[in-house]
Each structure stands twice: as C-alpha cells, then as structure tokens.
C-alpha cells in the first residue's frame, strides 16, 4: 500500500490536489495522511490569550479536518483508500520535513496557488520541494483532472539521479498508460555534437513509450519554458538534489522555481545520488 502525505488548508486548492492524486494513482489502494499545520502562539499576545487562541484554532481545525475527510471519502468512489489526519502547530513544510523523517512516505502532495511568494524564501510549495526529503507532487490551483497522457521529464548534462529513485514515476506511467517525453536540454547547438545519450532512460522505462525531444536553451528552466510554450503536457518531472540550507538559499534549483506557481502538476524526484552512484548504473551493450 502506498503511503501519501497530503498537506491541506481545507481550501478548494487542497481539494483539487486530492482529486488529482486519487485519479493519478488509479486502482492502487493508498493510505492517505492529511496534514494541517498551523502557527499556534502569536508572539505579541499574553500567555492566557495565546492559549485561548490556540484552543480556538485547534477546535476549528478539527472540525474542518472532519469535513475534509468526509469529502475525501466521497472522492474515493472505489472505497479502496484509507484516510488519517494530523494537526500540528508548525509551518506546513516544517511539519512535512519532520514527518518524512519519522515515517516512510512514498509521496508528499500539496496544492499551489502562487500566493505567499517571498523573493528570498518562496512559499509553502517551494519549501516542500527545497527541504522535504521525499518525492513530491505540486498541484496547481487550476489543474486539469483529465487522464494522464503526456509526461515531460527535463534532463540536461547536470541531471543526476539513481534510476531506482525513478521507480515511483515509472509506476505512475505504467498505471496510466502515459507517454514519457525526455526533454533533453542542451546549451549550445553544434553540428559535430550529438544531444545527450538517453539509452539508459529507455532501458529503465522499458515497456513505456519514451520519446526523445532535444531542445537548445541557455539553461534547464529556459528549455522547459520553451517547450511548454508550444506543447501540451499533463505533468512535468524534475530531479531535485539533496541540498543544505545555504545551497538552497543562494542557488535555488529549477524544481523550486517551478513549484512557486506551476502551470501543470510538477513531480519533484528527490535524489541523494552522486556521480559515483550514477556511473555504477550505466547500461552497457
């Protein structure tokens, strides 16, 4: 059984994220944990007032969570999933980061509406992609709930990921009968230089339709934007390498930038891989 952690603020955005992931996983029974994180004590209030406010917030959150679970049970028309809830006094990303170390979740899910963006720190969706050590799906507010058909995974010369870390993506592609488009981003177009070889990806995704799409752009982010300007995609996949806080602060990865206000659902593959691991997995003929 897949274990899914979904953060909710009880909004339509969160409900759409739930509808999307339930449809995405098809007939596979999953255990959903719904997380609602909230800030508990205002720093400028008295202790008595803070405790009263905390109790009010907690009671309202419990009632909203019961309603959200009721909605989830209606969405689960096959009645194959189980639903649990957690209320934690913390930031959503902080709570998910803590829980991901305590439990082995297969996937974390969050809705995104592009609001709350900070020039330095981003928003909840960017924090999840940047700091939570798990695969994540960020679902935009106006998500298309039609069946998954076309999935674009962006790769370039700097992309590093163990193929075993792509097993979750492979399962989603197989369940939905979707096509994987390898967006092969190159910085320069030279007549004597071929695009990056992708036979390792073809070998791993054997049985799935994989299409190579080379594109020339100044960086990965620009290549993705160019592709989406002229082509439709049901999901975008990027690789997010494990980073320290300072690395994430001063050098925001492409996954983080895309998560702030995604145009299509974004699946961020969390990777701990190094070049040494990748080289051991290379396919030879």
Automatic annotation (TrEMBL):
UspA domain boundaries: 1-140
Family annotation (InterPro entries): UspA
Protein name: Universal stress protein
Species annotation: Emticicia agri
